Amino acid sequence: MSVQPERERVSEAGCWCCGGTFPEAELVRLGNHPEVGVCLRCARWLRRRAVQRFDERHPSPAARVRGAVQGVRAAVIRKGWHRRGALGAVLRWIDRHLP
3-class secondary structure for 33-72? Predict the structure, then answer.
């Protein structure tokens, strides 16, 4: 009788935000709570929400600019422009490079 070696498994865990399953390399762990894992997409979304909340509590010219960018982003999503062919591709590219 021969024993087949067990295949090396990639450790996957769930995102606490969206519930998706991701490899460990694509999760961000919280410092004092390593059991909490958030995928990179949700971590980016959470960062935007944290900056928005900070800007609300500490107004500044930069906060107003970021607020205007967020307003434009919300309008684009509401109108569905981010899903339109070449225009959508350009808008998504811009979104990846904005705060």
Answer: CCCCEEEHHHHHHHHHHHHHHHHHHCCCHHHHHHHHHHHH
Tens of pLDDT, residue by residue over 44-94, are: 999 999 999 999 999 999 999 999 988 998 999 899 998 999 999 998 888
Provide the b/e sequence for 81-93 (b: ≥16 CB within 10 Å).
Answer: ebeeeeeeeebee
| Predicted structure pTM score | 0.69
Place of tokens 């004092």: 32
- Kindly tell me the burial class for residue 33, based on how many C-beta atoms sit within 10 Å of its own C-beta (0-12, 13-18, 19 or more): exposed
Angle at 80 between CA 19 and CA 98, to 5 degrees: 70
Domain range annotation of the chain: 9-58, 61-99
As beta bridge partners, residue 29 has 37
